[in-house]
Amino acid sequence: MSRCRRQNPGLTVRRLAIKYYTHGRRDQLQVALTFDDGPNPPRTDQILEILEGRGVRATFFVLGKWVERFPQAFERIVARGHAIGNHSHLHLTNLGDFDRAEAAIGNLLGRPTNYLRAHYFNFFTCLHSPLALSPEVKIVDADVNPADYAKTDPQAIVEATLNHPSLAGGSIIDLHDGSESDDAALRLARPLPMIRALPAIIDGLRAKGFELVSLDEMALVDPVAWRYDGRGTFATEELRAAIASMGALEE
Predict the structure, then answer these.
(1) Tens-digit pLDDT profile for the chain (251 aa)?
(2) Residues near 40 by Cβ (< 8 Å), separated by ≥ 6?
(3) How much is the pLDDT for 246?
(4) Are 44 and 77 in contact (CB under 8 A)?
(5) Of 36, 97, 141, 174, catalytic
(6) Which parts of 102-144 are beta strand (E)?
(7) 15 occurs within a structural domain
(8) What confidence score (pLDDT) does residue 12 get?
(9) Is residue 58 a contact partner of residue 94, using CB atoms and an 8 Å limit?
(10) Coil vs helix vs strand at 176
(11) Active site residue 36
(12) Which residue stretches of 121-183 are H helix?
């Protein structure tokens, strides 16, 4: 059984609770397009043009390091009216640097973000983040992940999205407009198949009767209580020590 234990036996034992959302209300025919790992000019700008041409608002989960490197690209996302989420600063497997990312994002956004997505969906990284544990922030997963980052055929991305077994009212769709890699060629090449697929994805979702909305237009429901899954075993000693000082999770 998972439990929290403080190093000081005189302190009260408490559980570090993490809850995340995978979908909105199932009784409403709304779906949310979300994009991870940007901003990534000019690829993000190509996506913005497609979204604007079809009258779609989306949500962009951005990396702090790219916001710092490409501030004007980030500002163009905001200027087009899309919702913004925090996707960490460096996107390293076991580093929960959401608070560092929030400083970069908030500096340009002028307000806190309301949404956070754990990179690699590794929720252990949220444990050492006051931001992630804040009740004002919603941690958002997705129930439709077509793995566009691993596909080179646009039609395969279209089919993996529109025929996904979990696609329903309230679905959150996870796509990628960038990459965590510092290799510029990879970062620019990876989103191209998804960009080619995006018009057909939007048209196909609408043909199924869905309204496309951003997360701030969707009522998120049925949060999932995260349980320790062992991925924290591979965290750095520094991160594990910091989490232990808060109340380490054990099996």
Answers:
(1) 333 333 433 333 344 578 999 999 999 999 999 999 999 999 999 999 999 999 999 999 999 999 999 999 999 999 999 999 999 999 987 788 999 999 999 999 999 999 999 998 888 889 889 999 999 999 999 999 999 999 999 999 999 999 999 999 999 999 999 999 999 999 999 999 999 999 999 999 999 999 999 999 999 999 999 877 665 555 666 666 665 665 544 43
(2) 66, 70, 73, 177, 178, 179, 187, 188, 191
(3) 54
(4) yes
(5) 36
(6) 115-116, 138-140
(7) no
(8) 32
(9) no
(10) strand
(11) yes
(12) 154-162
Cβ–Cβ < 8 Å for 164, 146: yes
Catalytic residue among 23, 82, 119, 176: 176
Alpha carbon of residue 208 to chain centroid: 25
The reported pLDDT for the residue numbered 76 is 98
Residue 136: strand, helix, or coil: coil
**pTM of the complete model:** 0.88
Write the CATH number for 105.
Answer: 3.20.20.370
Q: Which amino acid is at 112?
A: P
Residue 13 lies in a domain: no
Whether the Cβ atoms of residue 101 and residue 127 lie closer than 8 Å to each other:
no
**How many domains does the chain contain in total?**
1
In degrees, rounded to 5, the angle at the alpha carbon of residue 120 between the alpha carbons of residues 39 and 143 is 90
Amino acid at 188: L
Question: What is the reported pLDDT for 236?
Answer: 63
Query: Left if phi > 0, otherwise alpha if psi is -120 to 50, otherwise beta: which for 198?
Result: alpha
Contact between residue 14 and residue 133 where contact means Cβ atoms under 8 Å apart:
no
Q: How far apart are CA 182 and CA 186, in angstroms?
A: 8
CA distance 184 to 117: 23
Residue 216: give the domain boundaries: 3-7+20-250
- Assess if residue 14 is contained within a domain: no
